[in-house]
Amino acid sequence: MHQESEIRKPLIIGDRSYKDITDDIIRPVQGKANKYWWMVFTLSVTTFTWGIICLCYTIGTGIGVWGSNNGVDWAWDITNFVWWIGIGHAGTLISAVLLLFRQKWRMAINRSAEAMTIFAVMCAAIFVTMHTGRPWLDYWLFPLPNQFGSLWINFNSPLVWDVFAVSTYFSVSLVFWYTGLIPDFATIRDRMTKPLAKKAYTLLSFGWSGRAKDWSRFEEVSLVLAGLSTPLVFSVHSIVSTDFATAVLPGWHATIFPPYFVAGAVFSGFAMVQTLILIMRKVFSLESYINLKHIEYMNIVIIITGSLVGVAYLTELFMSWYSGVEYEQYAFINRATGPYWWAYALMMTCNVVSPQLFWFKKIRTSLIATFILSIVVNIGMWFERFVIIVPTLCRTYLPSSWNMYHPTFVDIGVFTGTIGMFFTFFLLFARFFPVIAQSELKSIVKSSGSEFKKKH
Amino acid sequence: MSKVTLHGIYDDDEQLKNGAIKIVGMGIRVKEVFSPFAIHGIDPIIGIRRTRLPICSFIYGCTGALLATWMMWYMMITDWPTEVGGKPNFSFLVNWPAFIPITFESTVLCAAHGMAITFFLRSWLMPGVTPKNPDPRTTDNKFLMLLEVNKEDLGKVEAALRETGASEVNVK
What we know:
The complex is a heterodimer of chains A (about 450) and B (about 170).
Chain A (H helix, E strand, L loop, with lengths): L17 H13 L4 H27 L14 H25 L9 H21 L27 H34 L3 H10 L7 H34 L11 H27 L8 H32 L2 H12 L3 H13 L7 H4 L2 H28 L14 H24 L5 H5 L2 H4 L1 H6 L1
Chain B lengths: L2 E8 L2 H13 L4 E5 L7 H5 L6 H27 L12 H4 L4 H23 L20 E8 L3 H10 L4 E4 L1
Antiparallel strand pairs in B: 1-3, 1-4, 2-3
């Protein structure tokens, strides 16, 4: 059995037996959804539907219905893509990196964080498939033999790397998440009495029976998948950043981009996890498992990654001055004082100033402050991508191609539609799937449970 | 000699581990252990060898790396060399740095999926498989030791199980 230091705070509050854990986590699955669930679900589905309508309009008419134009040819589409992919990164970081570091507090939040990853990457995928203009030809992105004399895709292009990176990331995250879910589905299966539900969970649980050999393999698979996912998550956002960094545009052409993007991704992802977890623990009464310590640990990650992002912003500014290149200097002056100065100011306030508030223990351990700041960070990180893309493209080398960007109702509809889709899927997940990895949580009751700590 | 199947049910993983040590010490094989979570340290006691899945994963990963390398060599260098943005593609070696990202992704893709599929096949986990746990409580809060013992040893084994903290001993 694992021993734990006295001074470590317990991760499971209250006298919780194995059975209590099962009961607490399976209750939302077995019970009926409450009024609030239905209210939020209806709202999400409505927004999602509006998003689908806007998508259909885009496909039917062409991406001319977006605000993107000649000059600002990447706008909300890529902003939203990078934002969603970034959010997804926290899920993998929590489940993979924290597993490798043997952080036990991850066990209460990894399941929902991984679900968040999967849904966020799905939202991101919508934007990349749509921004090509003719999404029915998107199979051209893959190296398939074709009639053009076998003109293959260009493997020197980061956009092609992105196709491989994002699809690998999505499928590996899905496998990682699902493998972890199997034992928990088996628990639900063995407790379900309704025949249809029992049948459904029998199918989902893949016939898991919890034999010692299966557990031994399961743990090894989890460990190796974590080991593979860790460099994967870093590679994905590094590759996303090379979409910009390999372009010879001032403001984009910077070697700092990969680490800066990864830090930003983790930063925004943890903020999104906070937003979701704080609502979830309240709605499903999971306060025993997701307690103040978990929230505080995540806030500490937010301070660190937020500070890294801040340092990256300042480094960019310094380097543009130090480079002595007029164009490079203008790119940053334009960001801060040009037509989109307000977006830059918003980004700086939300991403650099606001996470520093977490240095105060009172704020770091306050649920309301955390919730508000997590949303502030999410807004700030969206504006970071907007600031990188739109102000840069609206003031390129040729003043004759300078252009302003205004989102149309379709841009707004598709973006809010993906938020609706994200919450629709997350609510369905919370309703039908075990939201906490209970089989993992049970294994730490005796080392990190508050009652057990008192006795020993 | 006729054999009977015995279910020793424990409430605690440590007790089951002690029970297994005792049973194995008596020269009786523990046929199977069912538990709601992984019991660390049970494998050597009941004679389960370390899984070779990571070796498979390594081989799948190497395959993925080779496949991606071959694909990019064939498409970019041999079949249809295209000059894009002045990037050199007359030689594989010179063009190779641009191939690293996809080689890496392909390695991870093959290693992860290959390993998961091998795990599902080896443990025979897939939709439609009937679960084999003899007691539904083993996915909740009970730890079950499955034994096959000779009828004459029954009393002795049962006493050993009870002594190590088994809350139930069921003869099937």
